[in-house]
Design a protein that fits this description.
Shape: globular
Number of strands: 17
Helix content: 25-40%
CATH superfamily of one domain: Dipeptide-binding Protein, Domain 3
Distance between the termini: 45 Å
Structural class: alpha+beta
CATH topology of one domain: Dipeptide-binding Protein, domain 3
Strand content: 15-25%
């Protein structure tokens, strides 16, 4: 189960950059919006495969009880309204007159089934870990009402019933009869603005407008995702005009994309975290001096502002990016607070001094892997390896396929990359997943600390988002004092697009809405 958890949390970063709010080439004219993505899907069903691209794709067809708008605010979706009794008993009034794409009406029982299905790790390995284990029961208490009872007060439960949080409502009959939900044979059935009409793993997925959607007319009639295993092939398709938009354009290729006639490449702070994880159960990383020596050897400024990222990022001092604290303070104030978290700036003299106090003062050999979809992490690994040579440490850098990398995270590597992109504006989201070993999340460093566990549970049970900030900072600082994590940079990501419409309302939350293609239409 832990391995599934790691796969789920790690893959969140993959496509968190906002496609949204970019205009397609005369999208409203009826031509399809073609989105070129690096990578592929084996299933359209998030319950089975929980990559962030799955989330964005599935959100077109299946909705949650609540949704997230372009500002990261919760809005009514399949639930017209909701109430809570002391944050323990939540009652949702189900929107009436809603039909699934197969023509069957939405019922309260379908919602109950969807919640129970999402909580079942056997039926839904992709999202069960995300769904709170404090849910005692979900029941239809009226034809238009679903009541969810928790084991105690949990203010943030409401996020769990959004599709961002892992709830994708589906008909009970379809869910129980489909042999492989989300496969080419069992295409998604949902209430969303689009219907899955074609899916060929490794090639493409096509969605057409759902004329039965309760939200009204869908202006953009067709959206197609084209999958590319090779970045050069994707760039060629964009150059030839076969792709309107490209997500997650590699920084080191961005200038080539910009040279395409009529193309625009745009960068955005995406709140993604890139850093090293040390497993204190694996020698020699079981020694704090060794971990600190490696942390001091990371030239964050050089990686971010040199030839690797070319300024498209920010040297990180902690796990959450400043923008993650937007609910309570501006980015400048948040950056100041995060700078106070214990961290290690590039200092080879300090690195040598730390290593000299370890049991391996003359160095050692280790291997670090990085995912082939993220060449910048490989380049950063080589910079680190070069610096570590001065300490007598030989760091072997190895590229592996993304799916292999995901499956191996938390599997006993002494040092490895952790890349995470938040899907909500909860200040403590990353902390809950990366630092807690006993509660709702999972610590990929295989590290436990009683004080940090208590702090992350405090984050998890906070009465509001602002109350998450202080325990988030404290727990983060404890982890970094022991050099369990070594933050390297907070990311930017890039999209490339071509056409007549200019970018508008562009931010990292936009793709979390179910009708995000509407943002491509004038």
């Amino acid at each position: 189960m832990k391995r599934r958890i790691v796969v789920a949390i790690a893959v969140v970063f993959v496509f968190v950059f906002a496609l949204s709010a970019c205009g397609s080439r005369k999208a409203a004219s009826g031509s399809p919006l073609v989105i070129g993505v690096a990578g592929s899907l084996s299933s359209l069903d998030v319950n089975q495969e929980a990559g962030i691209l799955n989330y964005y794709v599935t959100a077109l067809a299946q909705e949650g009880l609540v949704g997230v708008n372009n500002d990261g605010e919760l809005i009514p979706t399949l639930a017209e309204s909701w109430t809570d009794e002391e944050q323990t008993v939540w009652k949702f009034k189900i929107r009436q007159g809603v039909t699934f794409s197969d023509g069957t009406p939405l019922t309260a029982d379908d919602v109950v089934y969807s919640i129970e299905n999402a909580m079942d790790p056997t039926a839904s390995p992709g999202v069960a870990i995300y769904f709170p284990d404090y849910v005692e029961k979900a029941e239809a208490t009226a034809d238009d009402e679903v009541t969810v009872t928790l084991d105690g007060p949990h203010a943030n439960f409401i996020i769990s019933v959004s599709n961002t949080g892992g709830l994708f409502v589906r008909p009970r009959a379809w869910g129980e009869s489909a042999d492989a939900p989300g496969s080419p044979q069992d295409l998604l059935v949902g209430t969303g603005p689009y219907t899955a009409t074609e899916f060929e793993p490794g090639s493409h997925a096509t969605f057409t407008a759902n004329e039965k959607w309760w939200g009204g007319e869908v202006a953009l009639k067709e959206v197609r995702f084209d999958f590319f295993a090779d970045e050069n092939t994707r760039l060629l398709a964009f150059t030839q005009g076969d792709v309107n938009f490209a997500l997650n354009v590699p920084v080191d290729q961005s200038e080539q994309w910009e040279k395409v006639d009529g193309a625009t490449v745009q960068f955005l702070n995406d709140r993604n975290y890139y850093g090293l994880t040390f497993d204190p159960n694996v020698a020699p990383f079981d020694e704090e001096h060794v971990r600190k020596a490696v942390a001091y050897a990371i030239d964050k400024e050089g990686i971010v502002n040199g030839s690797i990222l070319k300024g498209h990022g920010t040297p990180a001092t902690a796990i959450p990016a400043p923008e993650q604290f937007a609910v309570a303070m501006d980015a400048e104030e948040a950056a100041a607070k995060l700078a106070e978290v214990t961290h290690y700036d590039f200092d080879l003299s300090a690195a040598k001094a730390e290593l000299a106090q370890s049991s391996v003062p003359n160095g050692f050999e280790a291997t670090i892997t990085y995912p082939d979809s993220y060449p910048t992490t490989g380049q950063a690994s080589l910079v680190l390896a070069d610096a570590l040579k001065d300490l007598g440490i030989t760091l072997h850098v190895k590229e592996i396929p993304l799916d292999q990398w995901l499956n191996e995270i938390g599997g006993g590597q002494g040092v490895g990359w952790m890349i995470y992109g938040p899907t909500t504006l909860e200040p403590g989201e990353i902390t809950m997943w990366l630092l807690d070993a006993e509660g709702p999340g999972y610590n990929p460093a295989n590290w436990t600390n009683e004080e940090v566990t208590a702090l992350t549970m405090e984050v998890f049970g906070a009465p509001d988002f602002a109350a998450q900030i202080e325990p988030t900072l404290k727990s983060n600082s404890i982890a970094q004092e022991q050099a369990i994590y070594a933050p390297v940079w907070w990311g930017q990501a890039a999209i490339a697009y071509q056409g007549d419409t200019q970018v508008k309302d562009y931010n990292s939350m936009s793709l979390l809405g179910s009708n995000w293609p509407q943002l491509f239409v004038d």
